[in-house]
Structure formats: C-alpha cells, structure tokens
Design a protein that fits this description.
Radius of gyration: 25 Å
Distance between the termini: 75 Å
Strand order of the largest sheet: 4-3-2-1-7-6-5
Number of domains: 2
Mean pLDDT: 90
Strand content: 5-15%
Shape: globular
Organism: Puma concolor (Mountain lion)
GO cellular component, one term: cytoplasm
GO biological process, one term: negative regulation of autophagy
Number of helices: 19
Family: Belongs to the protein-tyrosine phosphatase family. Non-receptor class myotubularin subfamily.
Helix content: 25-40%
Number of strands: 14
GO molecular function: protein phosphatase binding
C-alpha cells in the first residue's frame, strides 16, 4: 500500500495550540507519509512546524458546525491541539493521522527515508561493537573469550552475533546451555570489575520445570564463571522475581537454579515490577501530572498511589545490591528474571553506572546503552509501541527503558559532578526510543535489525547526537571525573519526581534550568578566555 492511499486530505487551514507556554500558530496544515507540517505563511516570523507522525500516541476529534478540533497526545508526553477549518477536512485528517501513525512495517518507517545533511549511511554503527568491550576485558583478565557461537542467531535469536563467555567453556557447551535457558539466553558477561576481579553476568531463567531438570553444560558454565574470578570465589544469583513467581514459573517449564546443582552460588530474590503493572504505573503518573486543577494533597496522594517512585527505589536498590556484592563482598553476580530482556538489563546497566567511571562518560554511557539494551535484546519495538496516552489495551508495552533513564537521572541529581552527560541526553534517549528518525531503536533484536538491513539503510542515533552543535545540550558543564563508585541514597525521601520529563510541557522552565544555561555560558566564556590568552614561554618569569 502506498502512503498516498492513506491520506484522505493532504492540506487544510488550521491553528495549532502547543501548550500554556507557547504561542498559537496559524497557517496551512500539510500531511505527508511520515510528518504533519504547519506552514505559517510567507509573512510570518515563525519557522515551519514539524511533527513525526510516529510520535502520536493517541488522537481525539471533535467537530462543530463548520470546523473540527483534533487533540494529539504524543509519546514524548506533549499534548497538541489543532483547530481545523471544515468538518470533512478535520475528520479526514484525523483518520489519516490514525492510519499513518500506527503502521507496523519497520521498513516503511521514517528512518529508512531520513537523509540528513552532514551524515553518511553507516557512520557510527561501528562505534560500539561487542569486540570493543571485549578488548577492554582482555586487558584486565584472560579468563574470558569472545565467542561467535551465535553468528547466525540460531543459538539465541535475541543475542548479538558475538558474546563474551568463560574461556574454558567451548561453543558446543554454550549451545547446550542455551537450550536449557528460556529463549536461548545462556549466561554471558555483562561487566568485569577489575578492582575486585569479579564479574556481572546475565541470562534468562533455567528451564528446570516440574521435573527439576538439570543441564551439565549450564552447571559447567557457572562453575567456570567462579573459577575465572579468583580461587574460592562465590556467587550470588539475583532473581528479579519473587520466590512465589519463580515457583509458579517452574510449574510452566521455567524455574530457578537448584542449590545442589550450582555449588558456590546463592540465590537472592529481589522482585521488580514489569509488564502491564509497570505500564499502568506510568499511565497513572502522567494522568496525575496532567491534572492542573487538583489540590496539593490530591496531587501527593496520586503521586504516591501510582507507585512510580517506588519502582525507581526498587530498581536502584537491586542495582546497589549487585554492585555491593561485587565491590564489597568480592562475589560474582548472575542476574536474571524470566526472559532476561527487561528487569535483568535494568539491574546490570545500573550496577555498571554505580561501579564503572567509564560508563559515566558521554562515550561510555552511549556504549552502555548500546551494549546492555540494544544489542542485549531489549524488545524496543514491542515495549515502546505506545507511551502513556494510548487507548489500546497494553499487550507488550512497558516503560522499562524509561525507568532506567529515570534512575540515571536520580544518580545525576545526587552526584551532579560525576556524570559527563546531563538531563538533555536522557530526554533525547527517551524521545528517540519511542519515535525517532534514526534506526538505532528499531526492531526487537540484532537478528531483526539484520533482516531489515537497519545498519546499512538507516542512520545511527549516535552519529546525530555526537555532532558538535548537539553536544552543548547533552554534556554536563560541571563534570569532574570520579574514579570511585557512586552509592545513591534509595530512600523515598531522597528520590524526586523527574520534573524535566513528566512536567516538561506543562510548566515554565525551573530556575535550576535557567541556572544550568548560565553555568554553560560561564564555562564557555572561560574557555574562550583561555584560548585568547597568549601562552607563556618557558624562559619568561611567571608570577
């Protein structure tokens, strides 16, 4: 089907209302296969307004005698209102937006058509391959190797082609271990903590089932993890399900690692919410933030009732548990839930931010997101199909990646000098995960991206974000490298609502945001002054 078949009316006169802080725009509204445009006309001073249709989460329409109103609720939490001349034109445009914003085909999405100036196809896709992180691990220990057992994605469809595994375990054993793990997600290295010589490993649940099945190769793999750390090392299995949920999973073919089968490993249950309950928490929070008529008491009750900050607390607490086990207990950590593609990645990525100074740099954080979320198989296309406004009943949607970004924001607020990036990067990642002109967050796995030729036919988000003009919005001007672990306070009184995201479109800029821009100006002026000063030669006396 052609895009033109879905466009009932391509043009109309309209007025756009963008929120309480932005003036209305009047002009000609145009609809294309991927965008909604409003041209103010040749005499207007404002620029062309553009909206990627993929960012529309829900649409509501009302008609009067000779006009119509369309309300667009966007995945980035914006609420836009269009007042359109003509009832028929209003209804046609609304139906067209509904059809074009919900196309499921990946290869007809905008990233396959986006060709910005200054960027070349293929740029930045090579920035963060698994081989790059392996080189870092290989400099620290020889106990691990890079395996291409999954080169054709036949062993595990949600893993990348290459994974880091214990050197003493051959590919045949890995393949047999994969058959014993849900979705084929056998234990692989997530992070090597050089100071303690311990490792963070992730996987999915073992398929023990009601018969309490065992797998010799899977047991061998986890023994090799401990043997590669240090003599006498022990390990903790952090299961992100409750013990009751794990028992129920065993009745349907899943389960947990038996103590007798995995000596040296101790299981800890740290349940983290996922799936529909997490999505509903997100929806209730956004609804509460959008109600401008409520009293302060009502607002505080709704904020507590949605439990979003409780989810933030639990995620950070579990990540701290994993990080403490490595740094303070000298133990290896295996993290898994059921599938190993959601709360597992949340914990492993946050634990690395707490422990690893390189993950807190701009380049290191981009690599962390690429390695621990995108290449690790978080199903972005399913989880981010809708945001908080969709009227459709949630199927696979869950804001797990947004919860990760919120936790990172909490870390940045508690340690304002320790992250090289600022809130701007986190907001950009949130927006691009849900709707983007770049191909980085497309599909659900590396296998799907290969089938759709995403790396050769679309641009990488990292190439766009690393442009010099973008860096000012994304970097932290106060950054000072911190070689130590950063241990956040996870008590609820220490956590804050991320106003820069959840209240972004419904309130004026915070004084702190204005101050942030002034800090950038001071830093920029200071750098210019340094560059303009003549250098002092070695022979000249210095005061």
């Amino acid at each position: 089907m052609e895009f033109s078949d879905l466009i009932r009316t391509g043009r109309a006169q309209a007025k756009l209302l963008r929120g309480p802080e932005a003036p209305p725009l009047r002009g000609t509204l145009c609809l294309t296969g991927h965008h909604l445009l409003l041209s103010p006309g040749p005499q207007a001073t404002s620029e062309l307004w553009l909206l990627l249709l993929r960012s529309v989460d829900s649409i509501e329409k009302r008609v009067a005698s000779d006009s119509g109103t369309i309300t667009l609720r966007c995945k980035d939490l914006r609420v836009l209102q269009l007042e359109i001349e003509g009832v028929e034109a209003s209804l046609d445009i609304a139906r067209s937006i509904e059809a074009l914003s919900s196309l499921e085909s990946v290869i007809t999405s905008f990233p396959f058509f986006y060709r910005p100036k200054g960027l070349r196809l293929g740029d930045a896709w090579h920035f963060h391959p698994p081989e790059r992180y392996y080189k870092r691990v290989a400099r620290e220990t020889n106990a691990w190797r890079l395996s291409e057992v999954n080169e054709d994605f036949s062993v595990c469809p949600s893993y990348p082609r290459a994974v880091i595994v214990p050197r003493s375990v051959d590919d045949g054993a890995l393949a047999r271990s994969a058959r014993f793990r849900q979705g084929g997600r056998f234990p692989v290295l997530s992070y090597h903590h050089a100071p303690s010589g311990t490792v963070l490993v992730r996987s999915s649940q073992p398929l023990t089932g009601p018969q309490k099945r065992r797998c010799a190769e899977d047991e061998e793999l986890l023994r090799a993890v401990l043997a590669g750390a240090r003599p006498g090392a022990r390990g903790f299995i952090v299961d992100t399900r409750s013990s009751q949920a794990a028992k129920q999973a065993r009745m349907t073919g899943g389960g947990t690692e038996a103590k007798a089968a995995y000596p040296g490993w101790k299981r800890l249950h740290r349940p983290l919410e996922r799936g529909q309950p997490l999505q509903e928490s997100f929806v209730r929070l956004v609804e509460a933030c959008g109600d401008l008529q409520q009293s302060t008491d009502s607002w505080l009750r709704r904020l507590e009732g949605c439990c979003w900050l409780a989810h933030v607390k639990e995620a950070l607490s579990t990540a701290c548990l994993a990080a403490q086990g490595m740094e303070r207990e000298g133990a290896c950590i295996l993290v898994h839930g059921a599938e190993g593609t959601d709360s597992t990645l949340l914990v492993t990525s946050l634990a690395q931010l707490i422990l690893d100074p390189l993950s807190r740099t701009m380049a290191g954080f981009q690599e962390l997101v690429e390695r621990e979320w995108i290449q690790a198989g978080h199903p972005f296309q399913l989880r981010c199909a809708h945001s908080a406004f969709s009227h459709a009943r949630p199927k696979h949607e869950a804001p797990t990646f947004l919860l990760f970004l919120d936790c990172v924001w909490q870390l940045g607020r508690q340690f304002p000098l320790s992250l090289e990036f600022g809130e701007g990067l986190l907001l950009a990642l949130f927006e691009h995960a849900y709707a983007s002109p770049f191909g980085t967050f497309l599909c659900n796995s590396e296998k799907e991206r290969c089938l759709c030729e995403v790396r050769t036919r679309t641009h990488s988000l990292w190439s766009g974000l690393n442009q010099p003009k973008e860096q000012r919005k994304l970097r932290n001007p106060l950054y000072a490298p911190n070689p130590l672990a950063i241990w956040p306070s996870v008590e609820l009184q220490s956590l804050r609502l991320w106003q820069g995201l959840f209240l972004r479109w419904i309130r004026p800029p915070e004084p702190s945001e204005v101050a942030w821009e002034k800090v950038w100006q001071i830093v920029t002026d200071k750098e210019k002054t340094k560059l303009s000063q003549p250098t002092v030669s070695a022979s000249e006396p210095q005061l």
